[in-house]
Amino acid sequence: MNILGIETSCDETAVAVIADDGGRPEIRANLVQSQLAEHAPYGGVVPEIAARAHLDHIDRLIRQALDEAGLGFDELDGIAAAAGPGLIGGLIVGTMAAKGIAWAANKPFVAVNHLEAHALTARLTDVVEFPYLVLLVSGGHSQLLVCAGVGQYRQLGTTLDDAAGEAFDKSAKLLGLAQPGGPAIEAAAKQGNPRRFPLPRPLKGRDGCDFSFSGLKTAIRECIAAAEPGDAQTVADLAAAIELAICDALIDRTAKALRWFRAHYPQGTSLVAAGGVAANTRLRARLAALAADAGLNLVAPPPALCTDNGAMIAWAGIERLRLDLIDPLDAPVRPRWPLDPDAKTR
């Protein structure tokens, strides 16, 4: 199969083509157009600006991706687009482009859940069998899920307030670092002392697998205000403390989910880390040690496939097309779209 994937759920316009002949899939093209410059003056993503930027770039990226893959529309076997969750304006741009191509070329259309695309990316990059445990951490989401199959998810934990990626982004902004905040905090933390500034670990040791980062964000803001960082070393020490606190919170919750997963899914062999925060080197190392202690393998895609991209959408499209899960051209976009419909949501 040759699948075109389109991702426009937030502030990256991304288009990819994946070829799958039943062996190892091949990413034939994977293009991402960032909107950092457009949103920088506002200190965060502005939905209307994001949607207009998607409109500006999407046609060019689709043409470029097909050229790189050496394919025409008639050689595609399906078109997949992120239909949610995300910013509704951006979702409309991507899904309407995909639906238009599907209608004109008479190809199947697949409406992909952006979160499922993250969760399935490990099966694009590695041989991972169902079921597996997923830690999905990004700017908008912090969840622990059992992935028992395509479209089959059980949520073990979610954020009660803010997401880990948001904590990174807001902290970086307070420190005067660049966006996105995760990579900026990680880079600054390499030269820092994480023990200089004490920060809380939300919900550490508590029952359940839920996350909470709003209180940590408040503590970080107060810590930065008290420290009045005016030199590079203080910034580095604060960044290191922030990175360690967020990672500690994620590890504590994941450890509880791992124990539950091992008890209820003894046939499972993998812990998967997905989403933009999963690109963090410290977090990956600690997750690898945690998984090894539980007798599982850690599977974390390359950093470029952790952040939002079209390849993950194309791959989710392949996974769904294999099961004949095709969507009608009037399928709606869904700004909120939980993977586990029976689970509590924010």
Rg: 20 Å
- Please identify the structural class as seen in this structure: alpha/beta
* Beta-strand residue fraction: 15-25%
Q: How far from one another are the termini? A: 37 Å
- The stretches of 5 or more residues where confidence is low (pLDDT under 50) are none
Tally of extended strands? Answer: 10
* Main sheet: strands, sense, barrel: 5 strands, mixed
Per DSSP, the total helix count is 11
Helix content: 40-55%
User: What is the helix/strand order?
Assistant: EEEHHEHEHEEEHHHHEHEHH
Shape: globular
How do the strands of the widest beta sheet line up side by side?
3-2-1-4-5
Attribute tags:
346 residues, 5-stranded mixed sheet, 11 helices, 45% helix, alpha/beta
What does this molecule look like?
It is globular and about 60 Å long. The strands form two sheets. Strands 3-2-1-4-5 form a five-stranded mixed β-sheet, with helices on both faces. Strands 8-7-6-9-10 form a five-stranded mixed β-sheet, with helices on both faces. The protein starts with a strand and ends in a 24-residue tail after the last helix. Helix content is 45%, strand content 18%. The longest helix is centred in the C-terminal third of the chain and has 33 residues, at 232-264. The chain is built from eleven helices and ten strands. It has 346 residues and is an alpha/beta fold.
Helix-strand layout with pairing:
Blueprint: E1 2-7, E2 12-19, E3 26-34, H1 36-39, H2 47-69, E4 78-84, H3 88-105, E5 109-113, H4 114-125, E6 132-137, E7 142-149, E8 152-158, H5 164-174, H6 181-189, H7 214-227, H8 232-264, E9 270-274, H9 281-293, E10 297-299, H10 303-306, H11 310-322
Parallel strand pairs: 1-4, 4-5, 6-9, 9-10
Antiparallel strand pairs: 1-2, 2-3, 6-7, 7-8
